[in-house]
UniProtKB/TrEMBL annotation:
The keyword Zinc applies. This is Class II fructose-1,6-bisphosphate aldolase. PANTHER family: D-TAGATOSE-1,6-BISPHOSPHATE ALDOLASE (PTHR30304), D-TAGATOSE-1,6-BISPHOSPHATE ALDOLASE SUBUNIT GATY-RELATED (PTHR30304:SF0). One of its GO terms (molecular function) is fructose-bisphosphate aldolase activity.
Length: 287
């Protein structure tokens, strides 16, 4: 069965490694990531954005699909199905649809409202055994061709959200969704260190996990990061492998246009990348 993420992230925090939260888009992504986790003997989180939830015909469809694929493949490692960057209503809908973990991202509200809504979601989720992630500060990202740097989290605010009983906390520390620009200053380890000091062993979450150099990943883990979100990296891998297959004309050979053949190189590339990242994050052989 799918599990809440609380235990796996507590273990990761204590064991000084991080669990990857990989975003899914469809059956191929789900299958590839689950097979990678099983092969690497690693715990894993499957992230679902609200947009991806709509794309997959709703959170109930996602839950049913993930549960069935999980059971069909005989997956034995711990797997959490997690809402990524959820709204207040989205978080409640996912809990009702059978997700085992949710992120309520109230970082765009003023802090008092973020606190209030986070508190409500934590109560609602914990009454049902579901883990919760909240966010303080902002993660940068590209919008209309312009990359914003995000808002570095205030450690005092992190302390207050931690005191609500949240299970793990995402904080803006100079991380960015999507590709990192050439002039990126790197992660803000001073702030991460301060957040770690005031959050009393709480597992911390690093968003924008695609394209961060290995030494910065290692340092972030040493300062309490126990969950790393990865989305763009797998999209790039899938696109490159699919493009290679098509440009080599493989889709014209035999029945290479069969979708099961056409999508296979991309799925294999996702699986290989996930295993590589689990190795880098230290979660390999921790299941
Ligand atoms: O919430 C999702 C992640 O933070 C993914 O970021 O696309 O830069 O890997 P990424
Ligand atoms: Zn994110």
């Amino acid at each position: 069965a799918l599990v809440s993420a609380t235990e796996m992230l507590k273990k990761a925090r204590a064991g000084h490694y991080a669990v990857g939260a990989f975003n899914i888009n469809n059956m191929e992504w789900t299958k590839a990531i689950l097979l990678a986790a099983e092969e690497a003997k690693s715990p894993v989180m499957l992230g679902v954005s609200e947009g991806a939830g709509k794309y997959m015909c709703g959170f109930k469809t996602v839950t049913a699909m993930v549960k069935e694929i999980h059971d069909y493949l005989g997956i034995t490692v711990p797997v959490a199905l997690h809402l990524d960057h959820g709204s207040y209503d989205g978080a409640k809908a996912c809990i009702e649809a059978g997700f085992t973990s949710v992120m309520f991202d109230g970082s765009h509200y003023d802090f008092e409202e973020n606190m209030e809504k986070s508190k409500e979601i934590i109560e609602f989720a914990h009454a049902r055994g579901i883990s919760v992630e909240c966010e303080v500060g902002g993660i940068g990202g590209e919008e209309d061709g312009v990359t914003s740097m995000g808002e570095v989290a205030d450690p005092n605010e992190c302390e207050k959200i931690a005191a609500l009983g949240v299970d793990f906390l995402a904080a803006g520390i100079g991380n960015i969704h999507g590709k990192y620009p050439a002039n990126w200053a790197g992660l803000n380890f001073d702030v991460l260190g301060k957040i770690q000091e005031v959050t009393n062993g709480l597992p911390l979450v690093l968003h924008g996990g695609s394209g961060i150099p290995a030494d910065q990943i290692a340092k972030a883990i040493s300062l309490g990061v126990s969950k790393i979100n990865v989305n763009t990296e797998l999209q790039l891998e899938f696109a490159a492998a699919t493009r290679k297959y098509i440009e080599a004309g493989k889709d014209n050979e035999g029945k290479g246009y069969d979708p099961r053949k056409l999508l296979a190189p991309g799925a294999e590339a996702i699986k290989a990348k996930v295993i590589a990242m689990m190795t880098e994050f230290g979660s390999k052989d921790k299941a």
